[in-house]
Amino acid sequence: MFKPRVFTLICTLSLLMLSTTSSAFSENEQCPQLLQHQFNRLQDDAPQNLCQYQGKVALIVNTASYCGFTKQYEGLEALYAKYQARGFVVLGFPSNDFGQQEPGNSKEIADFCFNTYGVKFPMFAKSSVKGDAVNPLYAQLIQASGTTPKWNFYKYLIDRKGKVIDVYSSITLDLAAVALVRAAAGPALALLFTVLLLFLAVASDAVVFFALGRVAGLGVAGAASAP
Prior knowledge:
two-stranded antiparallel sheet, disordered C terminus, disordered N terminus, alpha+beta, four-stranded mixed β-sheet
């Protein structure tokens, strides 16, 4: 687990990178194919077109209310609150696919998320994220990434152009924050991030360096695929 001072530095750098790349998106660009889907909003079943999130860095997560990872709602909401103004969004898709850990209806799920964890990031009506009944967004995520959700709170990171750039297992939350760098950074900023990693390796410990290196794509194996 990251030391607080390390995590603060990473969040600060991520914020810088997001702010310096926000102008790269043009409102005149066509909505990416990945986002050309409509889902009902969890709270009131109002239809929502995902194209409203074009140009944003998106972390797409399949959620459940009665899972050992359910407490990640708190961290996901914190990420959303911190980076929302810089063009980052978390999109939650409740699913009962794993262990039947999301048995409730939309109102029950919405009430639980807000009352227990204060969730304000966009969430959508319960659907399937794998198998024959997989919803169309997840069908595309699976095809684009080559990996299917292994459990609740599996994460797909989408860049501003609507491309899947990374996938994170259910155990990964802090690394998802660091991964914002990959969604926003150009070559020059990636180099800057590499220098920062080297500094952190000296100032902190090898475990932190290894974890950050995995996410930054510094030649170390990618994120774990198991929950």
